[in-house]
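A reminder from the course coordinator: this example appears on the midterm review sheet, so study it carefully.

Given structure:
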């Protein structure tokens, strides 16, 4: 099963909805001079780019955050199934544990 088949089967081919990301939008809005609408657009674009890269079998590395990728035979030699993965950066884990 390929990535596209997996996404189609699971119904994950729809765009990310902002209701799923409200907490992140609120943080971006509070910590920047962006408007609420600009904050929504930035967060949506960020996750849409990660999703697009993962669909294209890319490993997306975000400095000081971690890596996003699809675990599947063609990317990680995972023979069992296809699923999205996030591998946090060590500095990100430390920051989360310190808060």
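Designed residues:
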């Amino acid at each position: 099963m390929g990535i596209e088949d997996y996404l189609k089967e699971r119904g994950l081919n729809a765009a990310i909805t902002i209701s799923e990301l409200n907490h992140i939008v609120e943080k971006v809005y509070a910590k920047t001079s962006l408007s609420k609408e600009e904050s929504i657009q930035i967060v949506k674009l960020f996750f849409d780019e990660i999703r697009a890269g993962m669909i294209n079998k890319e490993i997306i590395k975000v400095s000081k955050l971690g890596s996003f990728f699809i675990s599947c035979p063609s990317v990680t030699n995972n023979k069992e199934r296809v699923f999205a993965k996030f591998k946090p950066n060590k500095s990100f884990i430390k920051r989360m544990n310190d808060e």
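The two ends are 40 Å apart (CA to CA). Residues 3-98 form a domain with the HU Protein; Chain A fold (CATH 4.10.520.10).
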